[in-house]
Amino acid sequence: MPTSHTRNVIEVEGLTYTVDGRTILADLAIAVSKAEIVGVVGASGSGKSTLIKCLAALTSADAGSILINGRQIVGMPERKLKEVRSEVGFVFQYSALFDSMTVFENIALAPMRRLSYTRTQAMELVREKLQLVQLDGVQDYYPGQLSGGMAKRVGLARALALEPAILFYDEPTSGLDPPTARSIDELIVDMRRQLGVTSVVVSHDVPALARIADRIALLDGGKIAVMAPPQEFVRSDHPVVRQFVSADNFGIADAEKHSTDGT
Ligand SMILES: Nc1ncnc2c1ncn2[C@@H]1O[C@H](COP(=O)(O)OP(=O)(O)O)[C@@H](O)[C@H]1O
Ligand SMILES: [Mg+2]
Protein backbone atom coordinates (compact mmCIF):
# COMPACT_ATOMS: atom_id res chain seq x y z
CA MET A 1 0.00 0.00 0.00
CA PRO A 2 1.24 3.47 -0.77
CA THR A 3 1.87 5.72 2.19
CA SER A 4 -0.63 8.53 1.98
CA HIS A 5 1.29 11.13 3.94
CA THR A 6 0.48 13.56 1.17
CA ARG A 7 -2.75 15.22 0.11
CA ASN A 8 -1.44 15.48 -3.42
CA VAL A 9 -3.42 13.22 -5.72
CA ILE A 10 -1.04 14.04 -8.55
CA GLU A 11 2.68 14.38 -7.86
CA VAL A 12 5.11 14.61 -10.74
CA GLU A 13 8.87 14.97 -10.76
CA GLY A 14 11.46 14.81 -13.53
CA LEU A 15 8.86 13.98 -16.19
CA THR A 16 10.48 13.70 -19.59
CA TYR A 17 8.73 12.87 -22.84
CA THR A 18 10.48 12.68 -26.18
CA VAL A 19 8.99 12.07 -29.61
CA ASP A 20 10.99 11.68 -32.85
CA GLY A 21 14.12 12.89 -31.05
CA ARG A 22 12.36 16.07 -29.89
CA THR A 23 11.99 16.66 -26.17
CA ILE A 24 8.43 17.82 -25.50
CA LEU A 25 8.45 17.59 -21.70
CA ALA A 26 11.78 18.10 -19.94
CA ASP A 27 12.26 17.37 -16.25
CA LEU A 28 8.77 18.68 -15.52
CA ALA A 29 7.38 18.88 -11.98
CA ILE A 30 3.83 19.56 -10.83
CA ALA A 31 1.69 18.66 -7.83
CA VAL A 32 -2.09 18.89 -7.55
CA SER A 33 -3.94 18.47 -4.29
CA LYS A 34 -7.25 16.74 -3.67
CA ALA A 35 -10.33 18.48 -5.11
CA GLU A 36 -8.18 21.23 -6.56
CA ILE A 37 -8.94 22.71 -10.00
CA VAL A 38 -5.71 23.44 -11.83
CA GLY A 39 -5.71 25.20 -15.19
CA VAL A 40 -2.89 24.57 -17.66
CA VAL A 41 -2.07 27.10 -20.36
CA GLY A 42 0.72 27.22 -22.91
CA ALA A 43 1.40 28.00 -26.54
CA SER A 44 0.00 25.67 -29.17
CA GLY A 45 2.35 22.70 -29.47
CA SER A 46 3.92 23.32 -26.05
CA GLY A 47 2.89 19.85 -24.87
CA LYS A 48 -0.30 20.45 -22.84
CA SER A 49 -2.18 17.48 -24.31
CA THR A 50 0.92 15.31 -24.00
CA LEU A 51 1.26 16.27 -20.34
CA ILE A 52 -2.29 15.37 -19.33
CA LYS A 53 -2.16 12.16 -21.41
CA CYS A 54 0.97 11.15 -19.46
CA LEU A 55 -0.80 11.91 -16.17
CA ALA A 56 -3.89 9.96 -17.24
CA ALA A 57 -1.72 6.96 -18.20
CA LEU A 58 -2.82 7.24 -21.84
CA THR A 59 0.75 7.90 -22.99
CA SER A 60 3.88 6.62 -21.29
CA ALA A 61 6.57 8.99 -20.12
CA ASP A 62 10.23 8.30 -20.98
CA ALA A 63 11.51 9.12 -17.52
CA GLY A 64 10.54 10.58 -14.21
CA SER A 65 8.02 9.92 -11.51
CA ILE A 66 4.24 10.27 -11.76
CA LEU A 67 2.33 9.44 -8.60
CA ILE A 68 -1.44 9.14 -9.10
CA ASN A 69 -3.22 8.67 -5.79
CA GLY A 70 0.17 7.70 -4.38
CA ARG A 71 0.90 5.02 -6.99
CA GLN A 72 3.86 5.21 -9.34
CA ILE A 73 2.60 4.87 -12.92
CA VAL A 74 5.90 5.31 -14.75
CA GLY A 75 7.05 1.82 -15.65
CA MET A 76 3.87 0.25 -14.28
CA PRO A 77 2.82 -2.96 -16.06
CA GLU A 78 -0.11 -2.61 -18.51
CA ARG A 79 -2.41 -4.76 -16.38
CA LYS A 80 -2.02 -2.33 -13.45
CA LEU A 81 -2.28 0.71 -15.71
CA LYS A 82 -5.79 -0.39 -16.64
CA GLU A 83 -6.79 0.02 -13.01
CA VAL A 84 -5.28 3.50 -12.89
CA ARG A 85 -7.06 4.46 -16.12
CA SER A 86 -10.36 3.57 -14.54
CA GLU A 87 -9.63 5.96 -11.66
CA VAL A 88 -9.20 8.92 -13.99
CA GLY A 89 -11.57 10.46 -16.51
CA PHE A 90 -10.45 12.17 -19.67
CA VAL A 91 -12.59 14.68 -21.56
CA PHE A 92 -11.04 14.76 -25.02
CA GLN A 93 -10.75 17.82 -27.20
CA TYR A 94 -13.51 17.65 -29.84
CA SER A 95 -15.29 15.19 -27.48
CA ALA A 96 -13.99 12.14 -29.43
CA LEU A 97 -17.30 10.28 -29.16
CA PHE A 98 -17.77 7.12 -31.23
CA ASP A 99 -19.92 8.31 -34.13
CA SER A 100 -21.47 4.93 -34.86
CA MET A 101 -22.63 4.49 -31.26
CA THR A 102 -25.52 6.15 -29.49
CA VAL A 103 -25.00 8.40 -26.49
CA PHE A 104 -26.07 5.48 -24.27
CA GLU A 105 -23.53 3.15 -25.89
CA ASN A 106 -20.74 5.72 -25.66
CA ILE A 107 -21.27 6.18 -21.92
CA ALA A 108 -22.09 2.54 -21.11
CA LEU A 109 -19.13 1.07 -23.01
CA ALA A 110 -16.56 1.19 -20.20
CA PRO A 111 -18.87 0.10 -17.35
CA MET A 112 -20.22 -2.82 -19.43
CA ARG A 113 -16.78 -3.94 -20.61
CA ARG A 114 -14.69 -3.30 -17.54
CA LEU A 115 -17.18 -3.69 -14.70
CA SER A 116 -19.46 -6.21 -16.43
CA TYR A 117 -22.53 -4.03 -15.92
CA THR A 118 -25.74 -5.50 -17.28
CA ARG A 119 -27.74 -3.41 -19.72
CA THR A 120 -30.25 -2.60 -16.97
CA GLN A 121 -27.50 -1.48 -14.57
CA ALA A 122 -25.88 0.52 -17.35
CA MET A 123 -29.17 2.27 -18.13
CA GLU A 124 -29.43 3.47 -14.55
CA LEU A 125 -25.80 4.61 -14.58
CA VAL A 126 -26.15 6.46 -17.90
CA ARG A 127 -29.28 8.22 -16.65
CA GLU A 128 -27.43 9.31 -13.51
CA LYS A 129 -24.35 10.59 -15.39
CA LEU A 130 -26.45 12.48 -17.93
CA GLN A 131 -28.34 14.09 -15.07
CA LEU A 132 -25.01 15.22 -13.57
CA VAL A 133 -24.08 16.98 -16.82
CA GLN A 134 -27.63 18.35 -17.08
CA LEU A 135 -28.70 16.51 -20.21
CA ASP A 136 -31.93 14.64 -20.52
CA GLY A 137 -33.53 12.44 -23.14
CA VAL A 138 -30.51 12.12 -25.43
CA GLN A 139 -29.63 8.45 -24.76
CA ASP A 140 -30.67 7.31 -28.22
CA TYR A 141 -29.09 10.17 -30.17
CA TYR A 142 -25.99 9.65 -32.30
CA PRO A 143 -23.11 12.11 -31.77
CA GLY A 144 -23.84 13.67 -35.19
CA GLN A 145 -27.23 14.77 -33.87
CA LEU A 146 -25.76 16.72 -30.92
CA SER A 147 -24.75 20.38 -30.77
CA GLY A 148 -21.13 21.16 -29.82
CA GLY A 149 -22.07 21.93 -26.22
CA MET A 150 -24.16 18.77 -25.88
CA ALA A 151 -21.32 16.66 -27.29
CA LYS A 152 -18.96 18.12 -24.66
CA ARG A 153 -21.46 17.22 -21.95
CA VAL A 154 -21.75 13.67 -23.26
CA GLY A 155 -17.94 13.48 -23.37
CA LEU A 156 -17.92 14.51 -19.70
CA ALA A 157 -20.66 12.01 -18.81
CA ARG A 158 -18.57 9.27 -20.46
CA ALA A 159 -15.49 10.40 -18.51
CA LEU A 160 -17.56 10.13 -15.31
CA ALA A 161 -18.81 6.62 -16.05
CA LEU A 162 -16.26 4.82 -13.88
CA GLU A 163 -16.54 7.40 -11.08
CA PRO A 164 -13.04 8.80 -11.39
CA ALA A 165 -11.19 10.63 -8.62
CA ILE A 166 -9.43 12.84 -11.17
CA LEU A 167 -10.79 14.48 -14.32
CA PHE A 168 -8.61 15.76 -17.13
CA TYR A 169 -10.19 18.19 -19.59
CA ASP A 170 -8.41 18.93 -22.88
CA GLU A 171 -9.61 22.33 -24.12
CA PRO A 172 -13.20 21.64 -23.05
CA THR A 173 -14.55 24.96 -24.32
CA SER A 174 -12.66 25.39 -27.59
CA GLY A 175 -14.96 25.81 -30.56
CA LEU A 176 -17.98 26.73 -28.40
CA ASP A 177 -19.81 30.06 -28.45
CA PRO A 178 -19.19 32.16 -25.30
CA PRO A 179 -22.44 31.34 -23.41
CA THR A 180 -22.03 27.61 -24.07
CA ALA A 181 -18.38 27.83 -23.06
CA ARG A 182 -19.41 29.52 -19.77
CA SER A 183 -21.93 26.76 -19.08
CA ILE A 184 -19.18 24.14 -19.50
CA ASP A 185 -16.95 26.16 -17.12
CA GLU A 186 -19.77 26.09 -14.57
CA LEU A 187 -20.11 22.36 -15.05
CA ILE A 188 -16.40 21.86 -14.26
CA VAL A 189 -16.87 23.70 -10.95
CA ASP A 190 -20.09 21.79 -10.34
CA MET A 191 -18.34 18.42 -10.76
CA ARG A 192 -15.88 19.37 -8.05
CA ARG A 193 -18.69 20.55 -5.77
CA GLN A 194 -20.87 17.48 -6.29
CA LEU A 195 -18.24 14.77 -6.62
CA GLY A 196 -15.15 16.22 -4.93
CA VAL A 197 -13.06 15.37 -7.98
CA THR A 198 -9.63 16.80 -8.66
CA SER A 199 -9.54 18.57 -12.04
CA VAL A 200 -6.82 19.51 -14.50
CA VAL A 201 -8.14 21.77 -17.23
CA VAL A 202 -6.12 22.60 -20.35
CA SER A 203 -7.31 25.83 -21.93
CA HIS A 204 -6.06 28.97 -23.64
CA ASP A 205 -8.80 31.08 -22.07
CA VAL A 206 -7.00 32.65 -19.11
CA PRO A 207 -9.95 34.82 -17.92
CA ALA A 208 -12.18 31.72 -17.86
CA LEU A 209 -9.56 29.74 -15.95
CA ALA A 210 -9.15 32.68 -13.56
CA ARG A 211 -12.86 32.30 -12.68
CA ILE A 212 -12.82 28.54 -12.11
CA ALA A 213 -9.28 27.45 -11.19
CA ASP A 214 -7.58 27.47 -7.81
CA ARG A 215 -4.22 27.72 -9.54
CA ILE A 216 -3.07 28.25 -13.11
CA ALA A 217 0.10 26.67 -14.52
CA LEU A 218 2.04 27.81 -17.56
CA LEU A 219 3.70 25.09 -19.62
CA ASP A 220 6.69 26.51 -21.46
CA GLY A 221 9.98 24.99 -22.57
CA GLY A 222 8.78 21.55 -21.48
CA LYS A 223 8.38 22.66 -17.88
CA ILE A 224 5.84 24.26 -15.59
CA ALA A 225 7.33 27.73 -15.78
CA VAL A 226 4.78 29.50 -13.56
CA MET A 227 2.13 28.09 -11.24
CA ALA A 228 0.11 30.37 -9.01
CA PRO A 229 -3.40 31.35 -7.93
CA PRO A 230 -5.15 33.32 -10.73
CA GLN A 231 -4.65 36.83 -9.25
CA GLU A 232 -0.95 36.18 -8.93
CA PHE A 233 -0.65 34.30 -12.24
CA VAL A 234 -2.05 37.16 -14.34
CA ARG A 235 0.49 39.52 -12.80
CA SER A 236 3.45 37.26 -13.64
CA ASP A 237 6.08 38.98 -15.75
CA HIS A 238 6.81 35.78 -17.69
CA PRO A 239 6.68 36.85 -21.37
CA VAL A 240 4.33 34.01 -22.38
CA VAL A 241 1.93 34.88 -19.54
CA ARG A 242 2.03 38.49 -20.70
CA GLN A 243 1.15 37.34 -24.25
CA PHE A 244 -1.82 35.35 -22.97
CA VAL A 245 -3.07 38.12 -20.74
CA SER A 246 -2.78 40.85 -23.39
CA ALA A 247 -4.29 38.62 -26.09
CA ASP A 248 -7.23 38.17 -23.73
CA ASN A 249 -7.79 41.91 -23.68
CA PHE A 250 -9.02 41.42 -27.24
CA GLY A 251 -5.95 43.19 -28.57
CA ILE A 252 -6.78 46.41 -26.68
CA ALA A 253 -3.46 46.39 -24.86
CA ASP A 254 -1.59 45.88 -28.15
CA ALA A 255 -3.59 48.57 -29.91
CA GLU A 256 -2.83 51.02 -27.11
CA LYS A 257 0.84 50.19 -27.33
CA HIS A 258 0.87 50.84 -31.09
CA SER A 259 -0.93 54.14 -30.74
CA THR A 260 1.71 55.38 -28.28
CA ASP A 261 4.55 54.20 -30.53
CA GLY A 262 4.13 57.43 -32.46
CA THR A 263 2.86 55.55 -35.51
N1 LIG B 1 2.45 10.99 -31.27
C1 LIG B 1 3.14 12.03 -31.68
N2 LIG B 1 3.95 11.97 -32.77
C2 LIG B 1 4.65 13.04 -33.17
N3 LIG B 1 4.63 14.23 -32.57
C3 LIG B 1 3.85 14.36 -31.50
C4 LIG B 1 3.07 13.29 -30.99
N4 LIG B 1 2.40 13.73 -29.91
C5 LIG B 1 2.74 15.02 -29.76
N5 LIG B 1 3.62 15.40 -30.70
C6 LIG B 1 4.26 16.72 -30.82
O1 LIG B 1 4.50 17.16 -29.50
C7 LIG B 1 4.29 18.55 -29.40
C8 LIG B 1 3.30 18.84 -28.31
O2 LIG B 1 2.02 18.40 -28.71
P1 LIG B 1 0.73 18.60 -27.84
O3 LIG B 1 0.94 17.95 -26.52
O4 LIG B 1 -0.41 18.13 -28.65
O5 LIG B 1 0.71 20.19 -27.66
P2 LIG B 1 -0.48 21.15 -27.20
O6 LIG B 1 -1.59 20.30 -26.66
O7 LIG B 1 0.14 22.05 -26.17
O8 LIG B 1 -0.87 21.93 -28.41
C9 LIG B 1 3.83 19.02 -30.76
O9 LIG B 1 4.91 19.60 -31.42
C10 LIG B 1 3.37 17.75 -31.43
O10 LIG B 1 3.53 17.87 -32.81
MG1 LIG C 1 -3.51 20.03 -27.25
Please describe what this structure looks like.
This protein is of the alpha/beta class. It is built from 10 helices and 10 strands. It has helices spanning 48-55, 78-85, 103-114, 119-132, 148-159, 178-195, 206-212, 230-233, 239-247, 252-259, and strands at residues 8-19, 22-33, 37-41, 63-68, 71-72, 88-91, 166-170, 198-202, 215-220, 223-228. The strands form 2 sheets. The chain has a 6-stranded mixed β-sheet, sandwiched between helices. A 4-stranded antiparallel β-sheet has the order 2-1-4-5, with helices on one face. Bound molecules: adenosine-5'-diphosphate (ADP) and magnesium ion. Adenosine-5'-diphosphate binds next to helix 1.
Please summarize what this structure is.
The protein has 263 residues and is of the alpha/beta class.
Notable characteristics:
four-stranded antiparallel beta sheet; disordered C terminus; alpha/beta; binds adenosine-5'-diphosphate; 263 residues; 24% strand; binds magnesium ion; 10 strands
Draw up the topology in text:
Layout: E1 8-19, E2 22-33, E3 37-41, H1 48-55, E4 63-68, E5 71-72, H2 78-85, E6 88-91, H3 103-114, H4 119-132, H5 148-159, E7 166-170, H6 178-195, E8 198-202, H7 206-212, E9 215-220, E10 223-228, H8 230-233, H9 239-247, H10 252-259
Parallel strand pairs: 3-8, 3-9, 6-7, 7-8
Antiparallel strand pairs: 1-2, 1-4, 4-5, 9-10
Helix pairs in contact: 3-4, 3-5, 4-5
